[in-house]
Write a structure and sequence with these properties.
There is one protein chain. The chain has 203 residues and is mainly alpha-helical. It folds into two domains: 131 residues, no CATH class; 55 residues, no CATH class. 61% of the residues lie in helices and 0% in strands. The chain has ten helices and no strands. The termini are far apart.
């Protein structure tokens, strides 16, 4: 509980500092970060956890610090998976310490993926190697539409049975390896052409 308490205190300090900041010190990078944290938490929290818990988990997992300091061109799929695993494990640990039930690796991965989609893929670093290998958010809509699509994959029957909210660590990365095969020479974010706003596949 010590880590969760420290994270809450750090979050309170950050909020207080933000409220005292003037318009000159509030820049687009911080603006994008705040929206991305909120959007990621909202996309992940339904039937699971409160938004503020997921926001705090995302704030302390290390992803923002990495994006602020790393060379995003020095990245490939293998290295991304290793770093991504650390972020997700941190999120899972934080939420478990907050005594939220039903936390899974799949939920943590969606939280991270939504944040990276908003900050990196939709941001000024969209053309970097990092953006090309970052995992797209995995959910039921994407998987159902892939199953209904003309994509030729031996894994379709498995995707049809997959519940993203139930994925453990091993199952998640096995799914990622399968999905990379769909467009193996294209940026991974292009897989989201199979994601639609509604459940209607349109395919």
């Amino acid at each position: 509980m010590h880590n969760a308490t420290a994270a809450n205190a750090n979050q309170d300090v950050c909020v207080a500092a933000a409220l005292l900041a003037g318009p000159i010190s509030y820049q687009i990078k911080e603006h994008r970060h705040r929206f991305s944290v909120w959007a990621a938490a909202r996309a992940t929290q339904r039937g699971f956890s409160k938004v503020d818990t997921l926001q705090k988990a995302l704030e302390v997992c290390g992803v923002r610090e990495f994006l602020d300091t790393a060379n995003l061109e020095d990245m490939d799929a293998t290295r991304f998976d290793a770093i991504h695993r650390q972020w997700c494990m941190s999120v899972v640990a934080f939420v478990e310490k907050a005594r939220i039930p039903n936390v899974t690796f799949g939920r943590a991965a969606k939280l991270i993926a939504m944040y990276l989609k908003s900050v990196v893929v939709f941001g000024p670093d969209s053309g970097t190697a990092f953006a090309c290998v970052a995992h797209p958010p995995i959910d039921g809509i994407l998987l159902r539409n892939l199953v209904a699509s003309p994509v030729n994959s031996k894994h379709k029957s498995q995707w049809a049975r997959t519940k993203w909210t139930k994925l453990n660590e091993q199952q998640y990365y096995e799914l990622i390896m399968q999905l990379r095969e769909v467009d193996h020479e294209e940026p991974f974010w292009k897989l989201e052409r199979f994601w639609t706003v509604t459940n209607d596949t349109g395919l």
